[in-house]
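Suppose you are handed only two things: the residues of a chain and a line of SMILES describing S-adenosylmethionine. What would the bound structure be? This form records exactly that question and the answer produced for it, so the two can be stored side by side and reused later without any lookup.

QUESTION INPUTS
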Amino acid sequence: MADYKKPDYWQLKARNEGYPARSVYKLMEIDEKFSILKKQRNSASSSLRVLDIGAAPGSWSLFALRKFSEGNNSWLKNGFLAASDLLPLSREFDKGLFDGDNFFFIQGDVTADDVRKALLSKGPYSVIISDAAPNTTGNHMVDSARSLELAEIVIMYAESALVPGGNLALKVFQGSGVDAVLKKMKMLFETVKSFKPQACRGESVETYYVGLGKK
Ligand SMILES: C[S@@+](CC[C@H](N)C(=O)[O-])C[C@H]1O[C@@H](n2cnc3c(N)ncnc32)[C@H](O)[C@@H]1O
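ANSWER OUTPUT
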């Protein structure tokens, strides 16, 4: 049985590098492998607009905001990020980045109307990233069903708020029903890949589906 209370290699690395959660390395691996946050050749947008669903405590958001501030082209430098979570973001490492004009956060349930309206009003987005996950109960069937519900909601955001050519990375818990999610993604994107970053805990059932080039 894994001891989740003991900080592991990735947690310690995250804290040393100024991120509140180990999950940042999953996004780094996804971005390294699929370049989801890179300008697409056919992109007509003048800047990168990202939506981060299930953002707390805020590592993925910080990664995107740091990418904007370190960007070497105007597409990145003028980047904008909207994010949402049931929980507040950690302010431990953001050094003011969460107060910038290029960032919008709404605390709430992404399935709720007011949150959806607020997030859609900041779109359209070039990239949607979702690490959203339900609180686990220990019952695999219940947990994977809840994770799939969230994945379906994220795909709805991609349908209505992602630009043509845009990319999506979303987390799912493996289980019956993932095929339906994969099928929807294949209808929506030119290319769809399944990827389990090394930073995922070995025993974890989570994996990421990456959709490239919204049709
Ligand atoms: C693994 S954490 C995300 C970690 C984040 N990517 C980071 O790097 O800091 C999953 C998050 O999904 C959020 N979440 C789950 N269901 C949600 C919902 N319906 N609406 C908004 N956030 C949700 C949880 O509150 C939790 O903070």
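WHAT STANDS OUT: The longest strand covers residues 162-173. The mean pLDDT is 92.
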